[in-house]
Amino acid sequence: MVTLFHDMMHKEIEVYVNNMIAKSKEEEGHLVNLKQLFERLKKYKLRLDPVKCTFGVKSGKLLGFVVSEKSIEVNPDKVKAIMELPPPSTMREVRSFLGRLNYIARFIANLTDKCQPLFRLLRKNVAVEWDDECQKAFDTVKAYLIQPPMLVPPSRDRPLILYLTVRRQSLGCMLGQKDDSHRQSKQSII
């Protein structure tokens, strides 16, 4: 797919394996981009499943996130699934919980620190003993996800602020800017 659309990628469209999104700043340009996309699909005899297609929307779910012209947010369905999980009782359940968090890690500041007690449960030849520290970490992450941050594109007229966190077991950074109300807006959490 990438080869077929290489000249359009990162301009008019984005392709992620079998997911595709056409993007435009104006409605007229969008119709031109769609026409070009459909011509390319026709040229290579590719078909789209109409049930999976959505047209003329300003936001939508893509790769497990809600993407709009203003931001990228965690899909509320993903958050709900995490919020409904009971505390893990086996190593497999701990891995599953941490895997779900890893998928949305860019939205959770200091995730490694928050989950440190849970990482201890993944050590070889260690029984899963869910203690108060594990429960606190589990509850802290869930509380954070009640209002997860959204990632927004940077504003060219404001300075970028890089925050670094260096700890013994982890390091992280966040790129942000202040908005009009001097609140922090996040561009990326790593």
TrEMBL record:
Molecular function (Gene Ontology), one example: catalytic activity
Keyword Signal: no
Top-rank taxon: Eukaryota
Pfam short name (any one): RT_RNaseH_2
Reverse transcriptase/retrotransposon-derived protein RNase H-like domain location: 130-183
Family matches, as Gene3D superfamilies: 3.30.70.270
Keyword Chaperone appears in the UniProt entry: no
Alphabetical UniProt keywords: Multifunctional enzyme
Name the UniProt record assigns to this protein: Reverse transcriptase/retrotransposon-derived protein RNase H-like domain-containing protein
Originating organism: Punica granatum (Pomegranate)
